[in-house]
Amino acid sequence: MSTNAKTTNLKDKKKIICGACDADLAPDHYGIQCVQGHHYCTDCSKQIVNLFFSDPQVYIPLRCVQCRVELNPCVFERQLTLTQIDFYNKHMLALVWVKELVGPDERLDNCPFCSSAVIRGKNDPKFFSCEHPECGKTSCLVCQKACPSLFTDYATEEELEEMIRHSICADLADDKQAFDLAVENGQKVSCPKCGLAGMKDDSCTHMTCPTCCQVWCYFCGKRVEDCDKEQNGNNGIIDHNHDWDVNPKRCPMYFTQIQDIDPRWPDNETNCLIMFHRNRSLRLLRDVLGKLGKDRIDKLNNHFHVLDSCGFSLREILQEDLTLIQGRDRFRRNNNKN
């Protein structure tokens, strides 16, 4: 994906800026940085470290807080104090297992309350009975909450109600995952070749993946080889931008160009990016709602409140006009008249 950092020119030199506090950084600064060129000063890096330690099971694998691309562990590890290293290593073991030991029909289940992890089959129950001697808790892997520990054949009414709630978690697990993925993927775009995902900076829509070197278009998500381009052109992905304002198969080089034919779009890249990902999020959520159906979505929201907390209303998801660029036909007619 784009390797352009958030920079500004000063005395003809490239100046690196912290993505959180806008502080100036030296090229060899000691803070966190990701492969897409997002940098963080040491103070802000400490805040990212604290975020990981607040809930390590949620924040593994380590990701850039801006683009969500996975971080190189070494740039994170050098931020740790001696007292943090042992705790960190215990939780990172789970990530190593995922990458190296887990088979295609397996999954790695982590105890939400300690560093214990076990490789299990993909279709195994969504409950985890921790065998760590200092933990021993039974938990629901869907809602990440503790389940009643039943040591006898008899359970209280409260314990039975709680187990029923967790059985509903298990029934809705796949639906919840689909909904959560739609919310997450709405805020990033994946490389069409290797799948590396993130959010672009304020530069153009031409992307070069730092992992596989694929050139692609952020706006439509296609490889340069698959993009519709000007016939007999020899300018690569730039030919995909030719006549974008009248050809719905073409894309603009910059988001800010769209306002020339569609006044809904802002005049700055930051707000344009927000609008683009809002549209993408609504489109993905609409697809999920269409696949699951109203009854299933109602059940999912009643149990997990996913719809209430996603940032969009049901009306917006189902009824908002998601035409990404309006006015192309009108612009083409005006050009023909002239």
From TrEMBL:
RING-type domain residues: 14-246
Keyword Protein transport tagged: no
Keyword flag Transferase: yes
Keyword terms: Metal-binding, Repeat, Transferase, Ubl conjugation pathway, Zinc, Zinc-finger
Coiled-coil residues: none
GO MF entries: transferase activity; zinc ion binding
InterPro entries in the cross-refs: LUBAC_E3_Ligases, TRIAD_supradom
Pathway: Protein modification; protein ubiquitination
Name this protein carries in UniProt: RING-type domain-containing protein
Taxonomic path: Eukaryota, Metazoa, Spiralia, Gnathifera, Rotifera
